[in-house]
From TrEMBL:
Keyword Hydrolase tagged: yes
Gene Ontology annotations for the cellular component aspect, listed alphabetically: cytosol
Lineage of the species this protein comes from: Bacteria, Pseudomonadati, Pseudomonadota, Betaproteobacteria, Burkholderiales
GO biological process: purine nucleoside catabolic process
MF (Gene Ontology): purine nucleosidase activity
Protein name from the UniProt record: Pyrimidine-specific ribonucleoside hydrolase RihA
Residues forming coiled coils: none
Gene that produces this protein: rihA
Keyword Hydrolase in annotation: yes
Originating organism: Herbaspirillum frisingense
InterPro entries: Inosine/uridine_hydrolase_dom, IUNH, Ribo_hydro-like
UniProt domain Inosine/uridine-preferring nucleoside hydrolase: residue ranges: 13-300
Keywords: Glycosidase, Hydrolase
């Protein structure tokens, strides 16, 4: 199949992200998958401030040779609260100190406006919207144009801790903690949602050998991936953000459960807590989320490696 034909059949995907090293790996996985047609990247304040995550997204796309995919910078802070809640798990620069060139200017439109426009212009139910950072941009799009998220085919969201402890507070996972109100708005949007909480990403464990094997690929992308992952794995050796992209390629790697889910957005000890109810047999059970709760980690690691191996 030639490039034009394969792009024509590719799944149209937008990725909202906050690179972040595991975000960077998710972008490389998407870039290396001919099944995926990346329409746009939107960025948000999360792991690092939005200026940094926007630069990083552009660097990774350029590294992967995706010079035509636009990057729209978005929310600088959560819907509620005056400052972004960043972390240093991915280093000061968000990419573990790995130097990468950046060759192009940022797109002028705000990410939330771009999401509204792209979802409006596309055929309803065609776009897969992958969200692997705080959900501020998606919630802003929903506030700007109520019902817009339901135009996506699905939202594939990394966030939340359902039956396991959080990674920021005892109850909250980072992406939900960083903008709990946005997370609740998105969960209640009525869109088709597949959630990848810590319950499943804690099973997506990178081994030191697997990380080192990227250096052996002898490619620009492999060398950069090995260096970034080595820095990241010292603090968080988990492939959180690659999970939703891998799901687009091979959904059967994951086990899913339906649940009713809401997010505690009230400031206080439990903000960002994802309250999930799994009462399958209860009358009136009205799930709003499909939660991935298991993954075949061996197959996941093989898939990620195989796709990144196709990049130069
Ligand atoms: C999430 O938080 C971030 O640090 C990662 O990029 C991932 O999206 C995991 O809790
Ligand atoms: Ca992320």
């Amino acid at each position: 199949m030639n490039q034009t034909t394969s792009q024509h059949h590719a799944i149209p995907v937008i990725i909202d992200c906050d690179p972040g090293i595991d975000d960077a790996l998710a972008l490389l996985l998407a870039a290396g998958s001919s099944e995926i047609g990346l329409r746009a990247i939107t960025t948000v304040a999360g792991n690092r401030p939005v200026q940094t995550t926007s630069h990083n997204a552009r660097k990774i796309l350029d590294l992967a040779g995706l010079h035509e995919v636009p990057v729209y910078a978005g929310a600088q802070r959560p819907l509620y609260g005056s400052e972004a809640r960043c972390n240093l798990v991915h280093g000061e620069d968000g990419l573990g100190g790995v130097q990468l060139p950046e060759q192009r200017p940022i797109a002028g439109e705000h990410a939330a406006n771009a999401l509204v426009r792209l979802l409006q212009d596309a055929e309803a139910g065609s776009i897969e919207l992958v969200a692997i950072g705080p959900l501020s941009n998606l919630a802003m799009a929903e506030l700007l144009a109520p019902g817009i998220l339901r135009r996506a085919r699905r939202l594939l969201v990394m966030g939340g801790a359902l039956r396991v402890p959080g990674n920021i507070t005892p109850t909250a996972e980072f992406n939900f903690y960083a903008d709990p109100l946005a997370a609740d708005i998105v969960m209640r949007s009525g869109a088709q949602i597949v959630l990848f909480p810590l319950d499943v990403t804690h099973q997506a464990i990178m081994s030191a050998d697997w990380i080192a094997s990227f250096a052996g690929l002898g490619t620009r992308c492999g060398t950069a991936a090995a260096a970034m992952l080595k820095a990241y794995a010292e603090l968080d050796p988990l492939l959180h953000d690659a999970c939703p992209v891998a799901y687009l390629l091979q959904p059967r790697l994951f086990g899913e459960e339906a649940c009713e889910l809401q997010v505690d957005w009230r400031p206080g000890a439990t903000e960002g807590y994802a309250l999930a109810r799994f009462f399958h047999k209860r009358r009136g059970f009205a799930p709003n989320v499909q939660a991935a709760t298991t993954v075949d980690n061996h197959a996941l690691l093989a898939l990620v490696k195989q796709k990144i191996d196709t990049l130069s």
